Amino acid sequence: MNRIALRFQELQKEGRKAFIPYIVGGDPDLPSLPRVLDTLVQSGADLIEIGVPFSDPLADGPVIQAASVRARQNGCTLAKLLSTIQPVAARLPVPLTLMVYYNQLYQRGVARFLAEANAAGVAGLIIPDLPPEAATELQNLAAASGIALNFLVAPTSSKERIRLAATASTGFLYTVSVKGVTGARSSLPQELPAFIQRVKELSPRPVAVGFGINTPEQARMIANLADGVIVGSALVQAIAADPELKKNGFSRPHPARSHLRVRKKEIPFGFNTPHSTASTHAAARSARPRAGPHEPESPQPKRAPLSHCQSATKSRRYSAPSYIRSHSPAE
What we know:
This protein is α/β, with parallel strands linked by helices. Helix content is 36%, strand content 10%. The chain contains 13 helices and 9 strands. The protein has a 9-stranded parallel β-sheet. The longest helix has 12 residues, at 62-73. The radius of gyration is 18 Å and the shape is globular.
């Protein structure tokens, strides 16, 4: 059993839900990443999702796109990110999963990427633009490396596609809460509870819900229905928004401390664990350290075949990217 599946199994036995914070690797800079990861663990993370900066992120909204630009401008590349993660992952008590686009795997070579990710201590992958039908090579290599694959479904997914993605997933099933890209929202769709329930009925894997989760009330509602809650844009925005964060680093309290606060008695999140030292979500301690020196950006990667990326990159209409549709890989 891979580390992500094992973590969910442990939480289920304890009757708790997973809190999964998302950050952009290298934002604001790579030297800060170890401190960011330590802070997330201290704030109660059960798994941590790290986004790999990319020039054409079809699933990401403005906040995460801007963070990717900052990270790339500060010299973050896939190789540097894995190199930074490696010494940290070995001592962290929670598994790390990368959110990465297939172009990045294709450009580096799938086998090479998985070997490097495994050596760096990466426990799982989320690949928004890779549907299960096109993932056979990756599935075989990932299984041999012990790396979990976590496919995505969305409100537009049919029952057949939900079953397919759930069966192909070896960690958890990433359930997209909205029809669109990432980004904190003031409200979530009224039909979301019914959708989560439908996914739970069809999936043999744990169900974690992400996209749009912004408030403690939203997190509580989702945690009552799903096995895990993913908070991304709200956290990334909290790191970037306050100028004091850059000045003070991670050593002092700041206004973001109260962001997404959840009292322990209100919801059985998995942050009452031995590694936890605070009863807040990850953003409660996030702070922005000084930016690192500017380094030249790496050359643009070569593109994966359209069969992997689907046709979302042909159209700049992000209202319904390919991974939230119920079409075949070649639309």
